[in-house]
Design brief:
The structure is a single chain. The protein is an alpha+beta fold and about 500 residues long. It has four domains: about 5-130, no CATH class; about 130-210, SH3 Domains (SH3 type barrels), CATH 2.30.30.40; about 225-340; about 345-495, no CATH class. The strands form nine sheets. An eight-stranded antiparallel beta barrel has the order 26-27-28-29-31-32-33-35. Strand 1 (about 15) and strand 2 form a beta hairpin. Helix 1 (about 5-10) runs antiparallel to helix 2 (about 30-50).
Length: about 500
């Protein structure tokens, strides 16, 4: 015999049993249907309360996925399941051996099987993870549709929100810049029943079987600000300048550079060109408008709503209102909040540079009167004051300076007795003023690793006019010529 709640749901047309039989009584008389359904809903609660004495059938066995608060039914427990309500989105389960205690639980909290043996197999599969939960250590962590960082987000976690681990799975590596983050992918269940995948780097494990919940940081003055600082993606301030001017210098615009907080590891990393440092802190205190990450020298303050100033040199702390521009060897830098995906920008700039290299060699062949020459032909440049400069379409160069070549014009310490070799890149942009006179620019990277040198050029009637840039690398576009050197006129010809 069916229990009262089953009968009520049959009347309401919403009863589902494990055997898959569904009843859906359709009443042609609309008034009669309304009365019947109204009666069903009115009596539903009473039926559930009486289910302990009125139900004799059992639809299956349930595995508890998330511990039922206030009971001994912990995650991984097996309980009898009597009724599934599609109206209230609940199961009616038993809680003790004699089945005298019954209660409603949300559908997502139980996984139902026809036999107890099948339920026991499921518990065995859960293994060591049946008592494990994860706690979000920062706000906004995504639960993904699949175990990969680029997959669709199905749930957004609040800071300190808990999820139930269902299984440990294989997934794609997660990177910040060029650094792979430590952590694992887990299949999880959220408190609203959403299933998905999270990466554990900024999550804390909690083993329910130990009964010891991890300690959470207490709220202090400025805690929200600190949390925002540590959970925001910060990029060097010159990124904004480059994007606004559409002049990307890839040596200073990379996914690697920025300030990255890691709440789980109590760490802040600063990644800048020629500088990399991880600051492992044990406490955060406030000193006026600075947040101090002790015992490290790192301190951070807000600079408006979308920027911060970071300082790691206690002998040179910027005053409030002081403009901060980072330079090699400096102890302070300004960072801006940036959620924009940098990869498409970097890829687009790489393509532009490849096109610029091909365009240069094409124009040079035409200027040399050999526009139909092989695309593999080298460009040979000669000058009484500049020496012999050879450029290859593969992006390599060789420069034999002349005895009277002005010191500092060629990269590094060029030796008249030995050719300097390295890489040539056509990339850095020109300001509007310079682009009116000069055709483009190139950068030379000597194999000796003595740093790059930037030049502007113009191709004119079999000659290549070259001037050295005075603009600091990283500015995005060349806007000034080094007045110490004049324009060098190279005669242009093609090699083999």
């Amino acid at each position: 015999m069916a229990c009262q709640s089953e009968i009520l749901e049959i009347l309401a047309g919403n009863m589902t049993r494990e055997d898959g039989v569904m009843s859906n009584y359709r009443y042609e008389n609309k008034i009669y249907r309304f009365m019947i359904k109204g009666l069903a809903f009115a009596l539903l609660l009473a039926a559930v309360l009486l289910v302990g004495t009125s139900c004799s059938s059992q639809m299956g066995w349930g595995v508890v996925l998330w511990s039922i608060k206030g009971t001994d039914a912990k995650a991984g427990s097996i309980v009898p399941v009597y009724v599934k309500s599609n109206i209230t989105k609940t199961y009616v389960i038993g809680l003790n051996d004699d089945r005298s205690v019954k209660m409603e639980v949300p559908l997502w909290q139980i996984e139902v099987f026809r036999t107890k043996k099948a339920a026991e197999k499921r518990v065995s599969e859960m293994g060591e993870w049946k008592s494990i939960y994860l706690i979000a250590q920062r706000d906004g962590l995504p639960v993904r549709q699949k175990p990969a960082n680029g997959e669709r987000r199905v749930y957004r976690l609040r800071q300190y929100e808990m999820v139930k681990v269902l299984a440990k799975v294989q997934g794609e590596a997660v990177y910040t810049g060029d650094v792979a983050l430590p952590g694992e992918w887990y299949q999880v269940l959220t408190m609203d029943g959403t299933k998905g995948y999270v990466f554990s780097n900024t999550m804390k494990l909690f083993d329910e079987s130990t009964g010891e919940e991890p300690s959470m940081p207490t709220d202090t003055s400025g805690q929200d600000t600190v949390s925002t600082i540590l959970t925001t993606t910060w990029r060097p301030s010159w990124y904004t300048t480059m994007l606004n001017s559409n002049a990307i210098d890839l040596d200073y615009f990379s996914m690697q550079y920025g300030l990255f907080g890691d709440l789980a590891k109590n760490q802040v990393r600063v990644e800048l060109p020629g500088y990399s440092q991880a600051f492992n802190y044990t406490s955060i205190t406030q000193d006026q408008d600075w947040f101090v990450f002790s015992p490290t020298p790192l301190r951070i303050r807000q600079d408006g709503t979308d920027a911060i100033i970071a300082n790691w040199d206690p002998t040179d702390i910027p005053a409030k209102g002081e403009a901060v521009e980072w330079h090699q060897g400096g102890g302070s830098a300004r960072f801006v909040a940036m959620d924009q995906d940098l990869l498409p920008i970097i890829q687009s700039e790489q393509i532009r540079r490849e096109n610029a290299l091909r365009s240069f060699f094409s124009s040079a062949r035409v200027a040399a009167g050999q526009g139909d020459a092989s695309k593999n032909s080298a460009i040979q440049l000669s000058s009484d004051v500049g020496g012999e400069l050879t450029l290859w379409p593969s992006g390599l160069y060789s420069w034999q300076v002349a005895e009277n070549t002005q010191a500092g014009f060629a990269p590094g310490n060029a030796d008249p007795d030995q050719a300097q070799k390295g890489k040539i890149v056509f990339g850095v942009g020109l300001s509007d003023d310079l682009s009116a006179t000069w055709q483009g620019s190139f950068s030379l990277y000597p194999d000796s690793s003595e740093g790059r040198s930037d030049y502007v050029y113009a191709i004119k009637m079999g000659h290549l006019l070259v001037a050295k840039s005075a603009t600091q690398p990283g500015s995005g576009a060349i806007d000034a010529i080094d007045s110490r050197f004049g324009t060098v006129d190279f005669a242009l010809s093609l090699g083999k």
